[in-house]
Amino acid sequence: MGNHALDINGFVVNGKSVDIHITTRGSDWIFTVTSIMGLLFLCILGASFLKSVKNRFFFYTLAAPAFVAFVVNFSIASNLGWTPIDVEWHRSNGDVAGNNRQIWYVRYIGWFLVWPIISVAILLTSMVPTLYILWTVFLTGSMAILATVAALVKTDYKWAFYTFWLFAWLLVGYNLIWLPRKYASSLGLDVARIHNVSSGFIWGVWGLYPICWGVSEGGNVIPPDSELIYYGILDCLLLPVLFSYFLWAHWNIDPARLGLAMRSYEDPLPGTLPHHEKQPVPAPSEGVTNGSAPAEPAPAAAV
């Protein structure tokens, strides 16, 4: 049974066809990436059961992006979640010749959901102030939005939004790598190593996305199949590779040390005392009444 996704979900959206689009080759590759993301999601959930309930914070945090990536890649492989946009640069090469090109808006939705969560996980490792986390979340979400707007603009004004995207990426680098370094170092060498490796790796990978965008959606240099291969490799670096290292490095670090321990059903609610089972009251011994002073002997009856 072959891949018939492109036959079932054709290349016409809202009555408009597209000239430059993916082929079955690209769809097959993204279905492979979909399987990788699905396996990653299941592995993260499975590994979480090897930890106590209190120590599963990062497992739940990273399982969410893996699930989003699974759904997004399934949509792209199924030829769903795109719109035709007129190209700025018309090429003579047959693979990129035409008036419009497939733009996958579902991909940018995935970026908007996934990228901020990853940055939150890294910053929580360093216990930086909440304001720094919110600012970095805003910047990473802005990168996805700016990339979306740039892709949907058919004139050369798209490169203005592309420049804004790169500027946001530079700001993310400062807030993700440089700013939290002392916070991470104060928590120990192991935490500092996790922060330095993870933040540097993710920022470097994020810097490769604009390059792919520039030669695909932006410049119409490479065909959509090559675009899918490029983005698929970056997604695998960003999620399976990074997440595997991140969870492995955190395996022997108590989340309570980072202020991230989760409350279990056995823990008391905040502001309440621990619940203890009612202790049985010992039977009163002779001359003693439940811890009170010994009772006075009753007076003898008068004769």
Overview in brief:
With 303 residues, the protein is mainly alpha-helical. The protein has helices spanning 5-8, 24-48, 57-77, 105-126, 130-152, 158-178, 181-185, 189-218, 224-250, and strands at residues 12-13, 16-17, 83-86, 100-103.
Features:
about 300 residues, mainly alpha, Rhopdopsin 7-helix transmembrane proteins, two-stranded antiparallel ribbon, 9 helices, 4 strands, elongated
How does this structure look, described?
The chain has helices at 5-8, 24-48, 57-77, 105-126, 130-152, 158-178, 181-185, 189-218, 224-250; strands spanning 12-13, 16-17, 83-86, 100-103. It has one domain: Rhopdopsin 7-helix transmembrane proteins (Up-down Bundle), CATH 1.20.1070.10. By secondary structure, it is mostly helical. Strand 1 (12-13) and strand 2 form a beta hairpin. Belongs to the archaeal/bacterial/fungal opsin family. Keywords: Membrane, Transmembrane, Transmembrane helix.
Number of helices: 9
Percentage beta strand: under 5%
Largest sheet: 2 strands, antiparallel
Strand ordering within the main sheet:
1-2
State the end-to-end distance: 112 Å
- CATH topology, which one? Rhopdopsin 7-helix transmembrane proteins
InterPro entries: Arc/bac/fun_rhodopsins, Yro2-like_7TM
Main location: membrane
Keywords: Membrane, Transmembrane, Transmembrane helix
Subcellular location: Membrane
